[in-house]
Design brief:
four-stranded antiparallel β-sheet; binds magnesium ion; binds adenosine-5'-diphosphate; six-stranded mixed β-sheet; 14 strands; Rossmann fold; alpha/beta; Alpha-Beta Plaits
């Protein structure tokens, strides 16, 4: 549906995007992740034909955005970082204005009415945009993207600046829209896209550093069976015991000490839950367990790792993360 090939964007001597390529199929919900300044908005502005690229091509449903901008734009609903709202218009006037701008041919009244209902702004449709809360304004921004029923929706950081309640509302709305559209959602917050997006593309410094299925990232986290253990017992003996227990790998003593309790870290071998045998073995020896917790890796960790070490594989990242946690 969207094909981006070797996209480069320079702002003067500043390279904002260097050789960005990816493809998005129809119906995909893609999270476009990266820290501030990574190049997310630049990429989205180029895909939507709002900004020209230095080199490279973007096609939407086979139509080149540069050669056939009107046709490509007809296929995309875009919510830019700063929605182009007119504060002196009422919601209804504004959506009618967008309708004309997009040269929409659907039944005007019915179409705008449906959009208002779906983003739940029907009750404010006669209010001036300037008098709306930030959350409502963002919904109006989403509404303008929906005018003309475009099959592709591109939203640039749609929840930035909203309060927690508004964030939940906008997320629910995005989830609903994702059932019937191809969606690209940019954000610098992983949790934002983890629940909604099937695929995550991570960009940093104008370079794509990862492009994976969300569940693939999640699996790495789940498979990372690293534990931290606190035991009141002689450090050397406990470590020896850990190293000799079947199913335990890479056991190490940590420097941390809390009274008579020493801390250790270890990994359990794939497919083995060592917690039960470990408990009984320690009890047998009379060493009380003060704490045992799994120290996994969340997407935030993966993201930081990716940004720091773009060449690393996810598997080695999991290991690196475990080492850092010790
Ligand atoms: P993001 O949306 O991921 O925060 P942007 O795409 O807005 O990142 O910006 C990418 C880089 O390009 C940043 O370093 C930013 O400072 C720079 N940049 C963005 N727009 C301009 C511009 N109009 N002129 C010069 N530099 C720009
Ligand atoms: Mg941006």
């Amino acid at each position: 549906m969207i094909k981006i090939e070797h996209l480069v964007k320079n702002y003067g001597s500043h390279v904002a995007l260097s050789d960005v390529s990816f493809e998005i199929s129809e119906g995909e919900i893609v999270g476009f992740l990266g820290p501030n300044g990574a190049g997310k908005s630049t990429t989205m502005n180029i895909i939507t034909g709002c900004l020209s690229s230095t080199s490279g091509t973007v096609t939407v449903d086979g139509k080149d955005v540069l050669e056939d901008p009107l046709e490509a734009k007809r296929l995309i609903g875009y919510l830019p970082e700063t929605p182009p709202l007119y504060p002196d218009m009422s919601v209804e006037e504004y959506l009618n204005f967008v309708y004309d701008l997009k040269r929409c041919t659907l039944d005007r009244k019915a179409h705008i009415g449906e959009i208002c209902a779906s983003v739940r702004i029907t009750d404010v449709r006669r209010r001036l945009i300037r008098n709306l809360s930030k959350g409502y304004r963002q919904r109006v921004g989403i509404a303008q993207a929906l005018v003309g029923n475009p099959p592709v929706l591109i939203f640039d950081e749609p929840t930035v600046g909203l309060d927690p309640k508004q964030i939940i509302e906008v997320r629910n709305l995005l989830r609903t829209l994702s059932r019937t559209h191809t969606v690209i959602l940019s954000t610098h917050i992983l949790q934002e896209v983890q629940a909604i997006c099937g695929r995550l593309i991570i960009i940093n410094d104008g370079v794509i550093v990862a492009d994976r299925r969300t569940e693939e990232l999640t699996r790495v986290i789940r498979d990372n069976r690293r534990y931290r253990l606190r035991v009141a017992g002689p450090q050397k003996e406990v470590l020896e015991l850990l190293r000799n227990l079947p199913g335990i790998e890479r056991a190490e003593a940590l420097t941390e000490r809390d009274g008579e309790a020493f801390s250790f870290s270890f990994e359990s071998a794939a497919g083995i839950d060592v917690r039960r045998p470990l408990f009984f073995r320690l009890a047998e020896r009379g060493y009380p367990v003060y704490g045992l917790e799994a120290v996994g890796m969340d997407l935030e960790d993966i993201f930081l790792q990716l940004v720091d070490h773009p060449e690393q594989s996810l598997e080695s990242m999991a290991a690196a993360r475990s080492r850092r946690r010790k």
